Amino acid sequence: MQNKLFRHIGRATSDRAFLHYAEFFETLIAKILLVVIILITIYAVVDLAINLSQIVLTNQIGSLGKTLISIFGLFLNILIALELLENIAGYLRKHVFQVELVIVTAIIAVARKIVILDLEKTSGLDLIGLATAIIALTIGYYIIRISNQIRNS
């Protein structure tokens, strides 16, 4: 009886079984994140629609510039959510992270930051940080893109 218990524990804690449980857990978390991102995206689209309808219905003339920037920010939030959705769905399909998609998501996030940036309240150090992020992401994207083309050739 005791010997049988030890064999069962040994099988359950073997590397293969442990990795199976870890993969199951990763997949479960990815599915939960996918559902959460879908809900967030739906909420963001509804929020964008409400904001756009308020602008159209109230016909705010002269204040469209600042409002337009916030609308672009909401729009880019939705694009970021869609990219995250694609990242998670791609992980569930292939069980690997697609680095190119992650970098594109980061580029969209930096672009969003630039669009909604208030230059009156932004320090030079913040601008240098954004410029550095843009350069690093662009170089990273270029390297990944070239390596993918070479691998697929």
Approximate strand percentage: under 5%
What is the residue-mean pLDDT, rounded to a whole number?
84
Distance between the termini: 58 Å
Most strands sheet: none
Helical content stands at: over 70%
Q: How many E strands?
A: 0
Helix tally? 5
Question: Could you list the spans in which at least 5 consecutive residues all have pLDDT below 50?
Answer: none
Shape: elongated
- Helix/sheet category: mainly alpha
- Tally of domains: 1
Walk me through what this model shows.
The protein has 153 residues and is mostly helical. The chain has one domain. 86% of the residues lie in helices and 0% in strands. The protein is built from five helices and no strands. The protein has helices spanning 2-12, 15-58, 64-94, 99-115, 124-152. α2 packs antiparallel against α3 (64-94), α3 packs antiparallel against α4 and α4 (99-115) packs antiparallel against α5. The protein is elongated, with a radius of gyration of 23 Å. The model has no long low-confidence stretch (mean pLDDT 84).
Label this structure with key terms.
about 150 residues; mainly alpha; about 0% strand; elongated
What's this model, at a glance?
This protein has 153 residues and is mainly alpha-helical.
Task: Note the topology.
Blueprint: H1 2-12, H2 15-58, H3 64-94, H4 99-115, H5 124-152
